[in-house]
Amino acid sequence: MAFLTIEEGVEVFYEEKGQGRPVIFLHGVWMSSRFFAKQVPYFSEHYRCLTLDFRGHGRSTEVHTGHTVASYAKDLHTFIGKLNLKDVVLVGWSMGAFVVWDYLKQFGGENIHSTVIVDELASDFKYPGFDIGAFDIESLTTFMTEIQTNRTAFLEGFLASMFKEKLPAVDAKWMLDEVTKMPESIASAILFDQSVVDYREFLPNITVPTLLCFGREEKVIPVAAGEHLLEQIPNARLEIFENSCHCPFWEESDQFNHLVDEFIRD
């Protein structure tokens, strides 16, 4: 485990294991790199497996600025540059998918081998003509209020909705601990930004191979979101995980690991 200085006053926590092509796992909003515990042992056997915590998340610096998807993408670019990583695979889950797309939008795909997108929409917001979005203004306002006034109870329910099956108590506890580490001010700031970013117009410009991984259970994200991405992103492939919800890498980790390995292998 290590810390990397991204800018003055901002250090991101990361872990790396193994050698070979770099594979970077990017977590969702409020989450952390700990959620990829079932990926590190597998991918570190044949790849340079890296997990990191976005600023303000997990064990990274609790800084009160820069909490936008675009800023996280810039942090990722700095991270890749400082570690001199080449031919990188980006695996973005939930908000992490937005970070992947914003990275490609800002910096291009010249240094990216491929991307894996896990259970995310082109935008979380229900913009006109985009009814599959997760949030309208009323639901987003409710989420923002709950984070400020009732966070622990609210996130207990939110975490439960991310999985098809009920989590063991030990896992539910550490996950809740992770998602309540940051101050409510940071949690609200990044929730709003990641809920309104919109990559629909950018998707057709993606040139790197893309694997789309979606859970069949639709408590959080509909399968239609994956089908929409498949239509819009060139050179994309969609895989549905029948016994998962928002976290197929956790609920069907063996299948997920093998499919991703097959996809990113030359």
UniProtKB/TrEMBL annotation:
- Which InterPro entries does the protein's record reference? AB_hydrolase_1 (IPR000073), AB_hydrolase_fold (IPR029058), AB_hydrolase_sf (IPR050266)
Task: State the Gene Ontology terms under molecular function.
Answer: hydrolase activity
Q: Which Pfam families match?
A: Abhydrolase_1
Q: Is Heme set as a keyword in this record? A: no
Domain AB hydrolase-1, first and last residues per copy? 22-252
Q: Which domain of life is it from?
A: Bacteria
Statement: the UniProt record of this protein carries the keyword Hydrolase: yes
One GO cellular component term of this record is: membrane
Protein keywords: Hydrolase
State the coiled-coil residue ranges: none
Name of the protein described by the UniProt record: Alpha/beta hydrolase
Gene source species: Peribacillus psychrosaccharolyticus
Q: Give the organism's phylogenetic lineage.
A: Bacteria, Bacillati, Bacillota, Bacilli, Bacillales
